[in-house]
Structures are given as structure tokens and as C-alpha cells.
Amino acid sequence: xxxxxxxxxxxxxxxxxxxxxxxxxxxxxxxxxxxxxxxxxxxxxxxxxxxxxxxxxxxxxxxxxxxxxxxxxxxxxxxxxxxxxxxxxxxxxxxxxxxxxxxxxxxxxxxxxxxxxxxxxxxxxxxxxxxxxxxxxxxxxxx
Length: 143
Fold this sequence. Notes:
The chain has helices spanning 2-17, 42-53, 77-91, 116-127, and strands at residues 23-29, 32-39, 60-63, 66-67, 99-104, 107-114, 134-141. A hairpin with a 2-residue loop joins strand 5 (99-104) and strand 6 (107-114). Helix content is 38%, strand content 30%. The chain is an alpha/beta fold. The chain contains four helices and seven strands; from the N terminus they run αββαββαββαβ.
């Protein structure tokens, strides 16, 4: 529930200030917030991270926003996320429900509280999925 509240508050606060040329996704896992998407300039990128960090309960902000047009082009990100999750299940190398998968513009972000061996397996499996350009690990380790 804390993560859902953080996501809702961050999206609302960002949306109030940035309406044009901005596409931001907010994902929170164990109060670590991942920001993905596009913004118009470096100042907006920094400000959005600051806005997010100011939300009560946020422990860390991982700012993966890209400076660009800010317009979300049609993508296959949801299909990529599904492919990666399916590969996790088929791979049987760790518990798939321990890893949250977020895809944005061909980049796969992995979040969760895992062992280092699980993180390595998840990154390995995700990198082999069709159309994945890059895998970014945003894990907390329990070993």
C-alpha cells in the first residue's frame, strides 16, 4: 500500500507541474522509486526527481528519465514485459514473483528484494528476450 500511495502522489504532483512534453512513469517497490520516460530538458529531469524524493516514505529515487521530445510513441513495452515474465516462469531459476519488471523504450528495469544469484539469473533471462536493448537492475539484496 505504501508503494501504491507513493506512485499515486508522485504522478499527481508531477502531472500538476509538467503537462507538456513530458511522459513520466513512476514505479515504487519497497519505497524505492523508479522514474522512467521522457522529459523536455535536464532541469525538468532534476525537478521531477526532487518532487518525487520529497514524498513522505520515499527511501530512494532512481532517475532513469531521458531528455527528449516527451511524447510517448506507440511501443511494445507491455509485450516486452510479458515476454520477460514468461521467460522467468519458463526458466525456473528463481521465484518470478520476487522480481517486478518495467519496460520502457526497449529497456527492461528489474526491481525487487532478491539474492544476488536471483538478480543475476533475472538479468540473464531478461537480456535474452526479444527486442530488449538493455537491462537495468534496481534490486535490493538480501544476502
